[in-house]
Design goal:
This protein has 233 residues and is α/β, with parallel strands linked by helices. It has eight helices and eleven strands. Strands 2-1-3-4-5 form a five-stranded parallel sheet, sandwiched between helices. Strands 6-7-8-9 form a four-stranded antiparallel sheet, covered by helices on one side. A two-stranded antiparallel sheet has the order 10-11. Strand 8 and strand 9 form a beta hairpin. It comes from Teichococcus oryzae.
Length: 233
């Protein structure tokens, strides 16, 4: 977190919706900065730190999907919640594939938006009870610290998004156990996420922890059941 009040960046080309969200989220206890397009969002990200982005998909010029992909490529791991008027599964999957942490289809209840934001922020900074410490787990040349949500290697700390860290933490807590996609979605605080959404997030995580993501050694698929994390050298 960047401070006592989580700092949000709301990016939407619809001035009316942008202003409504800015006022509502401020009333919910968030610090809110607004931007009208991707260029303004990048300028804000260059000068300020944010805990989460609320990003519209359909914007003139650079779309929300393109901005998300570029931010992830540049190493930004700030959580991103996408707002989309396209509610079809393929459109939602595209958001996850580009690096989003969650999505919300328009029209939506602002109270649900606030709830999802709080869920993502909580997920992005996982905390274990003091009486349940979990030691770092080895994944080949990397070590993952579930308490810090950090993936370290010989070359330093590997960047993980909030969603990736939460996914790896959920698997590490039950290393060696097969978790269904439904169990994983519940652990991430997104029980409504479909199977393909979980598969996409697993694929993204494998690119960071596996020597060969096409032949995973640590995050394995168990056919017809789900996924299992098997730490090792």
């Amino acid at each position: 977190m960047t401070g006592a009040e989580p700092h949000l960046l709301v990016v939407d080309d619809d001035a009316r919706l942008r202003n409504l969200l800015q006022r509502f989220l401020a009333e919910q206890g968030f610090r809110v900065t607004a931007a009208q397009d991707a260029a303004a969002a990048r300028q804000a990200l260059h000068s300020m730190a944010f805990d989460l982005l609320v990003l519209d998909v359909m914007m003139p010029g650079e779309s929300g999907l393109e901005l998300t992909e570029r931010l992830r490529r540049d190493g930004h791991e700030v959580p991103i919640l996408m707002l989309t008027a396209a509610g079809a599964p393929d459109d939602r999957i595209a958001g996850f594939e580009h690096g989003a942490d969650d999505y919300l289809a328009k029209p939506f209840d602002p109270r649900e938006l606030a709830l999802r934001i709080r869920t993502i922020l909580k997920r992005a900074a996982p905390a274990l009870p003091a009486n349940l410490p979990l030691a770092p787990v080895q994944l080949g040349q990397h070590w993952f610290d579930p308490e810090r949500g950090e993936l370290r290697g010989h070359d330093g700390t590997q960047r993980l998004t909030g969603g990736e860290a939460a996914l790896l933490s959920a698997l590490a807590r039950r290393a060696g156990e097969v978790l269904t996609r439904e169990e994983i979605a519940a652990a991430l605080g997104t029980p409504e996420a479909g199977e393909r959404a979980i598969d996409v997030q697993v694929t993204r995580l494998r690119r960071k922890i596996e020597p060969d993501p096409r032949e995973p050694r640590f995050l394995q698929t168990v056919r017809h059941r789900g996924y299992v994390l098997r730490p090792g050298t």
